[in-house]
Amino acid sequence: MTDIRNLYSRGDALLIVDVQTDFCPGGALPVSGGDEIVPVLNRWIEGAREAGIPVFASRDWHPAGHVSFRERGGPWPPHCVQESAGAAFHADLRLPSDAIIVSKGTGPDRDQYSALDETELVSDLKARGVKRLWIGGLAEDVCVRATVLDARRAGFEVNVIRDATRPISPEGGLEAEQDMREAGAVLV
């Protein structure tokens, strides 16, 4: 088995996208097998800690009545409502105490799929000298894809950790992988 810390190098960061209770089995908007990525991500987190690599974690952090909810004409059931149990990171995800949390979808009238969409993440990464991101999380065909594409547009090298992401649908996963590869991301 590869020692993950040896895959990281100076200028890298680990970005975990939306590994929240509502996106795992039993949640309001579950991704099939979403909880299966948690042990994989925990190994990547441990490797990042050992290598001295910063860990970032994004989360949907919606107000009640968010524009993405069906009650307002959006495509999704209510999910990841601020301060709710469903908005919490998965209970088994071992985020370090110094992980940088990025909240998105916080305004009632605008959705944000990407962790880089009108957040401070790009400037924070650049201030830390980050050049390459290792990305995993949920869902591959929605928020992971959007984050990867925005990261590439922002000039970051991107490695997508395939074992650490799951799509909403197999078809969506295939499309997302194609989009991410075409944008220059590496799927590892």
Report the strand count.
6
Shape by Cα distribution: globular
Biggest β-sheet: strands ordered side by side in the sheet: 3-2-1-4-5-6
Quaternary structure state of the chains depicted:
single chain
CATH architecture level-2 label: 3-Layer(aba) Sandwich
CATH class: Alpha Beta
Overall mean confidence score, pLDDT: 97
Class derived from helix and strand content: alpha/beta
What percentage of residues falls in helices of 4 or more residues?
Answer: 25-40%
How would you describe what is shown here?
With about 190 residues, the protein is an alpha/beta fold. The protein has four helices and six strands. It has helices spanning about 35-50, 120-125, 140-155, 170-180; strands at about 10-15, 55-60, 100-105, 130-140, 155-165, 185. It has a six-stranded parallel β-sheet, sandwiched between helices. The protein is globular, with a radius of gyration of 15 Å.
Topology readout:
Layout: E1 12-17, H1 37-51, E2 55-60, E3 100-104, H2 121-127, E4 132-138, H3 140-153, E5 157-166, H4 170-182, E6 186-187
Parallel strand pairs: 1-2, 1-4, 2-3, 4-5, 5-6
Helix pairs in contact: 3-4
Q: What labels would you give this structure?
A:
alpha/beta; Rossmann fold; 188 residues; globular; 6-stranded parallel β-sheet
